[in-house]
Fold each of these.
Amino acid sequence: MRCWRRVAAPLTRVKGKNTTDRFQEIIAEDQPYTFLYVPEDLIIISSRFRGIEPAPIGLDYNFIKWYVPQGEQKFVDDQMITYEH
């Protein structure tokens, strides 16, 4: 706790960086276990969606590029911003 108080106190940039680095080292050394397990996900997406590119980091990393072709859209909002694909 003392170390954290030093991090929170106003310090010079260099001293604050050193204290923060040491604080992170202590946390890393004292952690009870490391999370190495990622549960499997079952992701179901309608076949209407296009632009989905699965990757090792996950399925939804590029969700901003997903789209549904205009002829297959079921829900249309007049106020919605549309992008050309």
Amino acid sequence: MHSDHNKESLVLIRSVKRGLILHFLFFKDEIRDFDAIAKGEDIKLPSEQLELGRGLIEKMSSPDFEPERYADEYRERALAMIEKKVKGNARRKQDDGRD
């Protein structure tokens, strides 16, 4: 179990290469049967709306997705705060002469 933002989550932690990966899983009550999900088969859209939607998808699509262009800024700030805290504790231990 993992708690984040006052909500417990079911997670799986597994070893990959030289690190750990945390996978969020679903609780049973969060999973619906695929047949129970509305898929919009009965919806009829005007051809103009379909053309607009297809045009937007085409404009926003790129065959050259570059994940390195994106950064998890929240994670970077959290790691920086942790590193600052670790360094602060290391200095305090040196000042105190305790280990």
Amino acid sequence: MKTKHTPDPWEIDKTMNACGWDIRAGGIWIGTANGDHYIEGERPGGGFPGNTEGKANGILMAGAPKLLEACEKARDEIGAPSPEYPANIANAFDILNTIIAEYAGEEPQEQEN
């Protein structure tokens, strides 16, 4: 599949800037996973995660292209299930197919009848 997102690898900066951890793909800024803006652990008005949570969010964001690629490979390995497939295989295909369509902007693949 041709991706619509900025090509990977995406990486999280190793050190926190004034707001959080930047996510980059080469020299392209993707976004920032916010951490504390005030006192560590404080969420004034519920606005920002703490530093531990913010960094974990950034790691997950940076891993998104690889997670998407793994889902696509798993879906393609299963192949569109036919009626003869066991239910758990068909269910796995449906789960992968739905999540890929939702987050990668693809049309879901059709199952064989």
Amino acid sequence: MAFDPASGGGLKQGFFPDANGSYGSGSASSSVSGIRMDAVGSPTTIRYGGQTYIVTQTVKGTAALSKVNPQSGASPSRVSWREIKL
């Protein structure tokens, strides 16, 4: 699932492509925020040819690429959900 970590809400544009390969806006009914990956372990992100992909290992042991659409200006990175209270 993809969401805005700052607000906990949806992204302004679809993170994953729809069945037609396009990305809808967050208000469109075609906006895709999650896909089935059949993956194990931790995913990683790569950029190749100007596109961003999530790379996973499938349950059968093969690699799988999923094209994604991160927010403009956002760099894929690890996010920790630990909150430190002072």
